[in-house]
Amino acid sequence: MPDFYISKIKIRRGTNDQRKSVRLDQGEPAYTTDTNRLYVGNGVLSGGVSVTTKNHVPLTNFSSLSATYSEIGDIASIDNIFYQLTANPYTDITKWGRIATKVSQEFEYDSSSTINLKLSGLSASKINPNTVDGGLFINNNKLQVNYNPTFFGLSANKLSLNAASITTRELLSTSFGNGLSGGNGNTITLRTNPTNFSFVGGVLNANYTSLYQSISSYSGKSKFFAPVSLYNSLTTLSANGNDISTFDGVLYQMNGSSANQLSSWTDISDKKAVQRSVFSTLTGSSSLNSNNTLSSIFNGTPAHTITGAIPGLELTKFEAISSNGISTVTITLTSAGFLAYEGDFTSKTGQPIGRFAIPIFAY
Length: 363
Known about the structure:
Mean pLDDT is 75; it is low at 271-310. This protein is elongated. The chain is mainly β. The N and C termini lie far apart (175 Å). 3% of the residues lie in helices and 33% in strands.
């Protein structure tokens, strides 16, 4: 019966620092007790060559790579991104290469190692033209507004209406309110009663005769008649009480029982309006003589007249203070008469305003 022997084979072992100081023979294995790595000598390099790679536990930050003992080929992960040591020393983090999905220039990894689209990274050339609609299209690798150049144009890179591009065809007839009509292909116009109004050369004109006749009495209101050319023509109107007409710019209202009598027509113009008239030339025989109270407004006597240089033209003289403020001078005025005013109202001080006159002189 054969003999059986059980032998335990142990390879060279020690700490990693001890390994580095020993030149292992070719094919001689060694095990590091502190880093748990297996090395095989090549007869040349001290410590031999690592024959295994190691996947390190996930690290918290990139700088941790320089503190993680590693051999070429080792892999470590940070935020789900893998890094591999490509050259010694491992303490130089630039020797760690990134192992990740390669993305095009339109994408990037954010701080949490998530792939995201770069800000302003996507060009129109990457967009499928069939996905663009509703007024947009892609042309020359640019996303553009699809507009009708008949109506719109680009000014300073802004969409603007072309001049005179909107016609009656584009305007809805329902867009117009009271007094206007048009649209749906029709010209925009004023809505008028053709009986009372008409357009002459494109200008709106009123048919006054029919207009006055059309403003008839409603609930007791007055009827307006067309203006009359003669005062007596008021009596020819078929007017009733409170009806109104005009003569020479003055409003008259029929207040009597018979329109064919002028006494039935009352001037209803503003009673405070001033009526102006020029009275006769100031002469000695004028009714506006020295006995008239109007003489108080003169520095002299209205009746004091002499024959002027022009036959029939009377003169008035009065004394006035000279420009030196001391001596007096005599001024001769050629009287042109009075500018007289007639009123029927009361002043702010409560005084009744009747007839008054302002003298007119030429000198």
